[in-house]
Amino acid sequence: MNYSRQREIILNTLKEYVVHPTAESLYSKIKEKDPKISLATLYRNLNQLADNGIIKKIDGLEDSAHYDHNTGEHYHFICKKCKRVFDVKPDVAPDLIRKTEDSTGFLIENHDVVFSGVCKDCRESVSN
């Protein structure tokens, strides 16, 4: 993947803005740094970064995908109320890949685990 100043700005902003943003919310942050960048350029670069394994694209929350700079092994939890995306450490389900391969005979090359429900903050706001 060739160097691009715009791609560098996108990646750095994603690393600074660690809330698993959508392209649209990331775009508003990037426009502050590079007012000339277009939304189409942002989408093209996000897709290239995700296709090359530099970032993760998280689908399944709403119409818009969310993006994550953390490509290390971890899962996600998506709150149905506030729409925030949280990282979940993989040790909540130790050996998930191996156990799945052993029980199914599949060869897992890639995986995304996404939990959905209501986050702790939203649960507490309902009970108060």
Name given to the CATH homologous superfamily of the largest domain: Winged helix-like DNA-binding domain superfamily/Winged helix DNA-binding domain
Largest sheet: 3 strands, mixed
> Could you say how many structural domains there are in total?
2
CATH class of the largest domain: Mainly Alpha
CATH topology of the largest domain: Arc Repressor Mutant, subunit A
Q: What's the alpha carbon Rg, rounded to whole Å?
A: 17 Å
Computed structural class: alpha+beta
Shape: flat
Task: Outline the low-pLDDT stretches.
Answer: none
How far apart the termini lie comes to: 50 Å
**SSE series:** HHHEEEEHEH
Helix content: 40-55%
CATH architect. name of the largest domain: Orthogonal Bundle
Description:
The protein is an alpha+beta fold and 128 residues long. It folds into two domains: 5-68, Winged helix-like DNA-binding domain superfamily/Winged helix DNA-binding domain (Arc Repressor Mutant, subunit A, Orthogonal Bundle); 75-127, Ferric-uptake regulator, C-terminal dimerisarion domain (Dna Ligase, domain 1, 2-Layer Sandwich). The protein is 41% helix and 15% strand. Strands 4-3-5 form a three-stranded mixed beta sheet, with no helix packed on it. It has a two-stranded antiparallel sheet with strand order 1-2. The longest helix has 13 residues, at 39-51. 12% of the residues are buried.
Write the topology of this structure:
Blueprint (H helix, E strand, L loop, with lengths): L4 H12 L6 H11 L5 H13 L4 E3 L7 E3 L6 E5 L5 E4 L7 H9 L9 E4 L2 H8 L1
Parallel strand pairs: 3-5
Antiparallel strand pairs: 1-2, 3-4
